[in-house]
Amino acid sequence: MNIGLYFGTFNPIHVGHLIIANYMVENSDLDEVWFVVTPHNPFKKKKSLLENYHRLELVYLATENYDKIKPSDIEFQLPQPNYTVHTLAHISDTYPQHTFSLIMGEDNLKSFHKWKNYEIILEHHHLYVYPRVSEGKIETLFDKHPKIHHIKAPIIELSSTQIRAGIKENKNIQPMLTEAVWKYIDEMNFYRK
Asked: Which residues of 49-86 are buried (b: 16+ CB within 10 A; e: fewer)?
């Protein structure tokens, strides 16, 4: 199977993430998309970042009705801080029966040349890029690269930062989340302080 890895803190996961993942799996040659929950970097204190297991639970709740979209905690077992190139090597060794590709926004592609060992990533993996509204240009070496696929997915202008701020300000953000995710956040009283 060709699996697209969609990395993020998912703090919290929202309908924008699901729309992009679902669009990718339905409109490309990807068989599944795995949401790879990025662990809390122990060297950084981030008050607004929920504990790893809470964010993973939110991803489970958000994806439970999607057969082709799965949560992954593969990075939880890796030493921190971690680099994508190491995760890709680890996940490829763990699941040798699958091919893994990377899903990223166009904004990340613009800085991809600064990633650790980006050449090794491109040597072994394909990139599926969805459009984002962002400044800057894509490096010429990535412009027509045979392993970089630009998917004309819908542009989703929705962020976890907006959602956290909305909750803190007691605004109704429910349409931005799945019902199960909203229920968990509300019951656990997350992001209110």
From this structure: bbebeebbbbbbbbbeeeebbbbbbebeeeeeeeebbe
Asked whether the beta carbons of 53 and 193 are under 8 A apart, the reply is no
d(CA 121, CA 53): 28
Distance CA 184, CA 46 (A): 21
Domain coordinates in residue numbering, the chain: 2-159
For the record, the structure tokens of 5 come out as 């890895």
pLDDT confidence bin for 48, thresholds 50/70/90? confident
Residues recorded for the chain: 193
Give me the phi and psi of 72, to 5 degrees please: -140, 135
Rounded CA-CA distance 55/177 in Å is 13
Predicted local distance difference test score (pLDDT) of residue 169: 96
2-159 CATH, one of 3.40.50.300, 3.40.50.620, 2.40.50.1070, 3.40.350.10: 3.40.50.620
Per the listing, tokens 């394909």 go with 126
Neighbours of 102 (CB within 10 A): 23
